[in-house]
């Protein structure tokens, strides 16, 4: 009986919280709402240490907090959100911690693509940004599956940045630009050389 009463009270509290939140959001919507908000996932280890939690529990708590924030953003009408989740510098941590984070990341990515998840309920499309080649095979596969599974969603966009640094982004951008220029040069040569040969043959003829 106590369990039933506890569930009823919890359900009532959740409904009241939802109603209050909707009222607050209605007031906020009167003013300008940003189209894009970004979050930096930082402080999970400090939180875990402060709360005397087990390894990994701080990151799980951070993920739960992030899901709540994303839900509030989309309820407010924010169309684009970006999450800076795991930088290249994070790979410098202890190998055991990195492996644990990769496992947790794969688990949470798979959760995001479940049918009842916030992503599918709110029609959110997921993009992963960064050097995905640096991720473990399992995480990279999970990220690719998530992008494919949510490709039909169009109400909002969630960009998740992994394996990134500003330096790596600059280097990658320069490399892409150089490749485009080189491809353009080769195409020009392909057209230019036959033209020159034709002109030379005409002169000789």
UniProtKB/TrEMBL annotation:
Superkingdom of origin: Eukaryota
InterPro entries membership: UPP_synth-like, UPP_synth-like_sf
Enzyme Commission number: 2.5.1.-
Keyword ATP-binding among record annotations: no
Membership in a protein family: Belongs to the UPP synthase family.
A Pfam family the protein falls into: Prenyltransf
Protein name per UniProt: Alkyl transferase
A Gene Ontology molecular function term of the record: transferase activity, transferring alkyl or aryl (other than methyl) groups
Annotated organism of origin: Capsicum annuum (Capsicum pepper)
PANTHER family, A to Z: DEHYDRODOLICHYL DIPHOSPHATE SYNTHASE CPT3, DEHYDRODOLICHYL DIPHOSPHATE SYNTHASE FAMILY MEMBER
Membrane-spanning ranges: none
GO cellular component, one term: endoplasmic reticulum
GO biological process, one term: polyprenol biosynthetic process
Keywords: Transferase
SUPFAM superfamilies for the chain: Undecaprenyl diphosphate synthase (SSF64005)
